[in-house]
Design brief:
single chain; mainly alpha; 2 domains; 81% helix
Length: 272
């Protein structure tokens, strides 16, 4: 008779899970206390619904209006994802060029900083005029502008953080500049790149929603939040904000998962 094989969690995996649970526990406790204080303050001080709805009412509205909120959230999420991809790829390409050609970097860096210093509410109406306001292209452009500078700066710093000894060793083997870039500089820059991508994932969702406030399809989440607030349906408006937050967290989590797969050798990735 064949035996029954029992599989379990290895001691190392159990320790990692326990460590992650301990790291997440304080954040979960603070979150639960904040929600409880929010709910209790509304009941204790009789705060009006239009000023601040109860968290329980927001969650209830999110469920009851799910057939409207989640399709709108998915529409906005695709805009944010498009802007995230465009802005991140442009930032990495610009960092590569700036790192390779110092004169070009000195000319482009002030322009990039100046573009990101402009408030997003100033960009949104202009991009809506450049593109069709009902098209997602303008929102992608806004999200891309927000994502560009963090990715470019962090990627450039990562590319320039390569060990001079490793570079000299590769040159002693007659390695080309492209080989040095691929074998030394890119692996060194990856942790910096993923740090920037995590920041950009949040900024992309913000850019897409803010861009929709200045015009967009009726299927968009930002337009839905604005229209609900205008008719004083603040509970549904807050439910839309909750949906946007959850989708932003989902994009952030996807970047973290990719980081764990790609940068396994980094101490930060192993610890997480």
């Amino acid at each position: 008779m064949s035996g029954i094989v029992v599989t379990g969690i290895s001691p190392g995996m159990g320790r990692r899970l326990g460590q992650q649970a301990r790291e997440w526990l304080p954040a979960l406790v603070v979150f639960a206390l904040a929600i409880a204080a929010w709910e209790g303050a509304i009941a204790a001080f009789h705060i009006q619904q239009f000023l601040l709805p109860k968290p329980s009412d927001i969650v209830k509205s999110c469920w009851e209006q799910r057939h409207t909120l989640w399709p709108a959230g998915w529409y906005t999420f695709k805009e944010a994802l498009g802007g995230f991809v465009i802005g991140s790829l442009a930032g990495m390409a610009a960092a590569t060029l700036i790192g390779r050609f110092k004169t070009l970097g000195a000319a482009l860096m002030p322009i990039a900083i100046a573009a990101n210093a402009i408030p997003i509410i100033a960009f949104a109406p202009i991009f809506n005029q450049w593109f069709d306001p009902l098209s997602p292209n303008s929102k992608m452009a806004i999200a891309a502008v927000l994502c560009f500078l963090p990715v470019m700066v962090n990627t450039l710093r990562g590319l320039q953080s390569a060990s001079p000894r490793q570079v000299e060793l590769m040159r002693s083997y007659a390695a080309s500049s492209f080989t040095i870039w691929r074998r030394v500089r890119v692996p060194t820059a990856l942790p910096y790149v993923f740090t920037a991508l995590k920041v950009a994932s949040v900024l992309a969702m913000i850019g897409a929603v803010v861009g929709e406030y200045f015009g967009g399809s009726y299927d968009a989440l930002g337009v839905l939040i604005r229209s609900k607030a205008q008719i004083l349906d603040f509970t549904t408006a807050w439910a839309g904000i909750l949906v946007a937050s959850l989708l932003g967290i989902a994009l952030y989590a996807a970047v973290v998962a990719c980081e764990r797969l790609v940068v396994r050798w980094a101490p930060e990735a192993r610890d997480s």
